[in-house]
Amino acid sequence: MTGIPVPNEAALRDVVASALGLAPADLDPEANLVVLGLSSLEIMRLVGTWRRQGVPADFDRLVAAPTLIGWLEHFAELAPAADPSAEATR
Fold first, then answer.
1. Would you list the DSSP string of 27-59?
2. Is residue 6 helix, strand or coil?
3. pLDDT tens-place string over residues 50-90
4. Whose CB has fewer CB within 10 Å in the chain, the N or C terminal residue?
5. How many CA atoms lie within 13 A of 28 on its CB side?
6. What is the DSSP string of 53-69?
7. Burial class (CB in 10 A: 0-12, 13-18, 19+), 83
8. Apex CA 13: angle with CA 50 and CA 4, to 5°?
9. How many Å apart are CA 74 and CA 68, to the nearest integer?
10. What does each C-alpha distance from 62 to 2, 35, 70 come to in angstroms?
11. Separation between Cα atoms, residue 58 and residue 39, nearest integer Å
């Protein structure tokens, strides 16, 4: 797939930190987001938002690797040839 507007690291960090009530800079990329308090319902909401934006995010994949690093890997697999300048901000 090409041209999918996947979230970049800064955008992903912003949206996840906001959901957790943290400052984006305080979010460790290797921290387990579920342990930090991100519920499965909130993950479902994020997936719904991304899907409406044209990003085919997979809930099961995100839950299986609940870290920023894991999520960025998932998004990279969705759009390996996407132009970085076209990345979605949210």
1. --TTS-TTTTT--HHHHHHHHHHHHHTT----H
2. coil
3. 999 999 999 999 999 999 999 999 999 987 644 455 444 44
4. N
5. 7
6. TT----HHHHHHS-SHH
7. exposed
8. 35
9. 10
10. 20, 14, 7
11. 16
pTM over 0.90: no
Q: Name the maximum alpha-carbon separation found in the chain.
A: 33
Residue 72 tokens, joined: 């960025």
Residues 56 and 32: their CA atoms lie apart, in Å, by: 22
Q: Which of 2-6, 43-47, 77-81, 84-88 has the highest mean pLDDT?
A: 43-47
**Both tokens of residue 48?**
């719904």
Q: How far is 20 from 15, CA to CA, in rounded Å? A: 9
Residue 84 CB coordination number (10 Å): 8
Backbone angles phi, psi at 38, to 5 degrees: -75, 115
Tokens 């342990």 belong to which residue?
Answer: 35
